[in-house]
């Protein structure tokens, strides 16, 4: 396995008294696409939301174990969540552009982090929109409302907005589940291109999607990690019976 | 069991009944407006709008009352809007979901239901007497603030709560702090609702008589400072009518008051349009 960007060691998570993650141990390799698959309620979204500490927003959420990023435990008390989230961006299940112009959506992050000069913002917006394969469609209409875009365009805008902060890691939480097949194909192509510059973790319901876009795959079931390895191996020669059953569609 | 009335008939009947209800509501408004305009429009003139009252208001104009109403609104809004929105943000975004928060919210609800005459009495005792503000623009404005504050808190809180959580998550995931998220995403998204709350507040306050008659005074002179007494338009209308000074002047003043309310509502719509321009749906 190549270089490691994020490492999870015996990670446990409880919502109140219900344990949602059990002893998760896995490594996310640098500048690769790692897919997390599994049936609903298996903890895959919970896990990805640990990586940028979005679970902090949930009351009574408790975490033990280690989640290492840049040599630090993400859950250490002195970790600055704001800086962490700058380095680990997230694209959500439903496209969630702000009710602002297309330009202001992409410029939102850079502005937060102190970029003020118009030229610099223009540059970042253009680079980010190009990286998200949206530039050609919106370069003429940057002042239009982002909410006027189609669902697929909105999701690519959200990707551009995430890239504008120049993260190292981009987390995708079922990014295509609200999109049509054509928009989905565009996002998958995009993810393929993005792995040159970013470490990517994608949660998906769609096994074909995991097989198409990822280099590594983790299979989660009932809060536990059942199997983790190269995508090819997981899909062609899974070690565990339950992985095979899930992949062949015997349950899900 | 078969229906006594066929669904088709019921459908037609519903349409007629609903149409009639809407028609009656509109008719009542038209009758009130029409009556006031017919009774009062002939007294409206430049000298009525820009002149001072003579003979207790039986003759002359109403400029001091217009100016007084305006300044009462300014004091009430400047004091209630920041506090009200601040409290609403706290309650909606920061306050832990505890029994204490629930009690505060319930208290705000109750405060909104306090009759205005009671607020007027309290304003008189606390502002005019205890704090020594006397009958003045300041006392009247602050008493109006007591009255509109709960409205502004309640409506603002509701509209902040309706901002989709997805916006907050997106902002936080980009490395925004809580305050940055509130200031840059939540409040702008809630502005149309907050504006409505503030306008409701102003609308209530501008026509309010009971609160100000004990606090703002009844002077017909032009107020020159915050500490001068003033007679607001609704109170002026009340005195003109109740003391039989002049009905036409009362109706004329009512037209002016209605126009002021209308202007405020138009301003609210303009603000909502401005902030709502990104909410286009495809």
What's the short story on this structure?
The complex is a heterodimer of chains A (252) and B (282). Chain A has 252 residues and is an alpha/beta fold. Chain A has helices at 44-51, 81-87, 102-112, 118-131, 135-138, 151-163, 181-194, 207-213, 231-236, 241-247; strands at residues 4-15, 18-29, 33-37, 61-69, 72-73, 88-91, 169-173, 199-203, 216-221, 224-230.
Q: Which descriptors apply to this entry?
A:
heterodimer, A: 252 residues, alpha/beta, Rossmann fold, six-stranded mixed sheet, four-stranded antiparallel sheet, B: 282 residues, mainly alpha, MetI-like fold, 2 domains, 11 helices, globular
Give an overview of the whole structure.
The complex is a heterodimer of chains A (252) and B (282). Chain A is built from 10 helices and 10 strands. Chain A is of the alpha/beta class and 252 residues long. Chain A has one domain: Rossmann fold (3-Layer(aba) Sandwich). The longest helix of chain A has 14 residues, at 118-131. Chain A starts with a strand and ends in a 5-residue tail after the last helix. Chain B is mainly alpha-helical. Chain B has 2 domains: 7-43; 46-276, MetI-like (MetI-like fold, Orthogonal Bundle). Chain B is 73% helix and 1% strand. Chain B contains 11 helices and 2 strands; from the N terminus they run H-H-E-E-H-H-H-H-H-H-H-H-H. Chain B has helices spanning 7-40, 46-50, 63-94, 99-112, 116-130, 137-161, 165-173, 178-206, 210-213, 233-242, 247-276; strands at residues 53-54, 59-60. The two termini of chain B are 44 Å apart. Classes of the chains: A alpha/beta (252), B mainly alpha (282). Chain A binds chain B through residues 52, 54, 57, 59, 82-86, 89-90, 92, 94, 96-101, 108-109, 112-113, 145-150, 158, 161-162, 165, and chain B through 97, 164, 166-167, 169-177, 180, 184-185, 188-189, 277-282.
